[in-house]
Design goal:
Elements lengths: L1 H27 L23 E3 L3 E3 L1 H13 L6 H11 L4 H58 L5 E2 L9 E6 L8 H11 L7 E10 L2 E4 L2 H8 L5 H6 E11 L3 E9 L2 H23 L23 E5 L2 E7 L5 E9 L2 E5 L2 H18 L1
Parallel strand pairs: 3-6, 4-5
Antiparallel strand pairs: 1-2, 5-6, 5-7, 7-8, 8-12, 9-10, 10-11, 11-12
């Protein structure tokens, strides 16, 4: 009888343990089905004396089973993001302060990375600019000496001149290749007006052109042709190759032209004939201006192109000159010796030329 009762109790205990295990599994692994409902555990009077028996673990005390059942009842069934975060914070022993510090640390790291990248970019730009500067300096270091060497050894073409009629204090060469040949008279006049030389000095201005491998001063025939002078044949044929156009600085830059002749008689008669065209020919070259032209009447259309010359004496030399109504010399010419004609705009200029001619003759003797 006792054995049968004991066997029945064991069977009951096994059935209840299986049911408890199933309920426990359902609590720990809830179903996603919407029809799932928590089973209502009925409060039964615990059997204090009789333990529950499992097939694998044997008997489980009633008190432990009750604690396990209460734990299952208290465990949350729905997991939320908040619970996950709290669980994570709890498991990693973190706090909101630690999270803020970690976030701040990440921001500082990003800022440092940005500054590092910017610094690298600046370094790259500096390297590129430095490289460009070094290349330019290298080119200059190569080209400058080369330029200086070429300049140093570039042959200078000397201008071939004959012995000057007078000795000027300075000279200037004008290359015909650089000039407008249609306005040579005005070009020479403008060049003189733009010059700045010491008072009392003379400067000779020469027109030059390339002649083969040499550069020479153009001869008198070429000079007269460029100036478009309308000289009488008797005068043109007696002219020698030597001549000098220049300026004398006294009361402004005064222009002059010195010609050498082969026959005094032909030169004298030719100059008298040439007086009709002299004012017109020298107007652009010397920059001649007649202050009395404004007073000329319409009955005298040639007042600005034809001027009357009169005899004057300068330094005991017979000269011919054009004067204004107040007696100021506007244009004069003189044949001081049998080999020279001087044409200028001022008696002071003629005196200086005469003085230098005398000095040169004295030195040559």
């Amino acid at each position: 009888m006792d054995e049968e009762t004991k066997q029945q109790n064991q069977n009951i205990s096994k059935d209840e343990l299986v049911k408890a295990n199933e309920n426990l599994s359902s609590y720990l692994n809830p179903s996603i089905s919407e029809s799932f409902k928590l089973p209502v555990l009925k409060k039964e009077e615990p059997v204090a004396e009789e333990p529950f028996v499992s097939e694998n673990t044997g008997a489980i005390p009633a008190q432990i089973y009750q604690d396990l059942e209460q734990a299952v009842r208290r465990s949350p069934i729905v997991r939320t993001y908040k619970s996950d975060v709290e669980e994570t914070i709890s498991s990693n022993h973190m706090s909101s302060v630690n999270i803020a510090l970690a976030e701040n640390k990440r921001m500082m790291e990003r800022l440092n990375e940005s500054k590092t990248a910017e610094k690298k970019d600046k370094i790259n730009y500096t390297i590129i600019i430095s490289a460009i500067v070094l290349v330019i300096l290298g080119l200059l270091a190569f080209l400058v000496p080369l330029f200086l060497v070429n300049k140093k050894y570039t042959p200078v073409v000397a201008v071939i001149r004959t012995s000057p009629i007078i000795t000027p204090d300075s000279t200037e060469d004008l290359n015909l290749e650089d000039l407008d040949l249609t306005r040579i008279p005005k070009t020479l006049s403008e060049r003189v007006d733009q010059q700045s030389i010491k008072v009392g000095t003379v400067r000779g201005i020469y027109l030059t052109e390339q002649n083969g491998t040499e550069r020479k001063v153009i001869d008198i025939n070429r000079f007269i042709s460029l100036l478009k002078f309308n000289m009488p044949d008797t005068l043109a044929r007696t002219l020698k190759p030597d001549y000098l156009f220049g300026m004398y600085n006294f009361d402004g830059n005064q222009k002059f032209l010195i010609l050498k002749i082969g026959s005094y008689d032909n030169a004298y008669s030719g100059m008298l004939t040439y007086e009709v065209d002299m004012w017109k020919n020298f107007r652009d070259l010397f920059g001649l201006v007649d202050p009395d032209v404004a007073l000329a009447t319409t009955t005298d259309p040639f007042a600005d192109v034809v001027k009357s010359f009169k005899d004057i004496v300068i330094k005991n030399k017979d000269c011919r000159a054009v004067e204004d109504s107040r007696g100021n010399i506007l244009l004069l010419y003189c044949i001081p010796d049998k080999e020279t004609i001087v044409i200028t705009t001022s008696s002071n200029t003629f005196k200086e030329i005469l003085l230098r001619m005398t000095a040169k003759q004295t030195v040559s003797q």
